[in-house]
Amino acid sequence: MSTQAFATAAPSTDRLTALEDSAYRIRMHALDMGETQGQGYIGQALGVADLLAVVYKDVLNHRPDDPEWPGRDRFLLSIGHYAIALYAALAEAGVLDVAELATYGSDDSRLPMSGMASYTPGMEISGGSLGHGLGVAAGMALGLRHQGSGARVYNLLSDGELDEGSTWEAALACAHHGLDNVTALVDVNALQADGPTKGVLRTEPVTAKWEAFGWHAIRVDGNDIGALVAAFDSLRGHRGSPAVLICDTRIGCGVPMLETREKAHFMRVEEHEWQLARKQLTDRHNRGSAGSASVGSQGK
Ligand SMILES: [Mg+2]
């Protein structure tokens, strides 16, 4: 797994511990929501929990009690099936009440199984049809620049979304227009609906491709909160081109029994397993961060 070191001050232990606690709660929320449906994109939610904790607690400039505040940074979830992860993060951030998570996926809920902007506070775009998030990000970023706004646009993509030609058209446009208010976050979990990414359509070397498209590219272990914080710290001063943070993540990260599960793209978890999953998550958290404890535990 590739990692990079940055010339920034090391984040404080208190800051990292608070973020690890946030990631733990995000994972727990995702498990609780998953149990209400008995299945879902749990593996991905556990995989991006560290990234979402850092983004929502340490990076985004937003107002949890006013999710439509015009000056907010925009976070675009183009992968609508990751909605369960974003709901968990929005609850952790205080945009949603934790109690509302119990309605996940049920009739009349504001939390449908695929992300929909018209339903959920804090959900900027409707996702699901892949490959559109970065194009929307480009348009939003242009608009914000014309308005003289200092707000930034973040787009979370999956590695499967790199198969979409529209993603690369948008990447060209962002670089052409010098949109340094755009940051793409790519969840490289090496898996997509049809199987391992390297077998479906090879996208490596991912970093070199983004760089060739004119982006400032950084690649980190996406389950290492310290590495994520250092990467975002280094990006704060970047100007002149869009930036991409490529995050290598592990499906199911933090819950050992789910890290090795077959058919991980859409995971079925038996009724009796949810409580065990929560216990494993808590045991792992109490021993140290989810990510650092599981490095190397699963072949990718
Ligand atoms: Mg993937």
Automatic annotation (TrEMBL):
Residues 281-300 are annotated as: Disordered. SUPFAM superfamilies: Thiamin diphosphate-binding fold (THDP-binding). Transmembrane segments: none annotated. Residues 288-300 have a biased composition (Low complexity). It holds the Pfam family Transketolase_N. Coiled coil: none annotated. InterPro entries: THDP-binding (IPR029061), Transketolase_N (IPR005474). Keywords: Thiamine pyrophosphate. Residues 23-281 form the Transketolase N-terminal domain. One of its GO terms (molecular function) is magnesium ion binding. It comes from the Bacteria. Its cofactor is thiamine diphosphate. Belongs to the transketolase family. This is Transketolase.
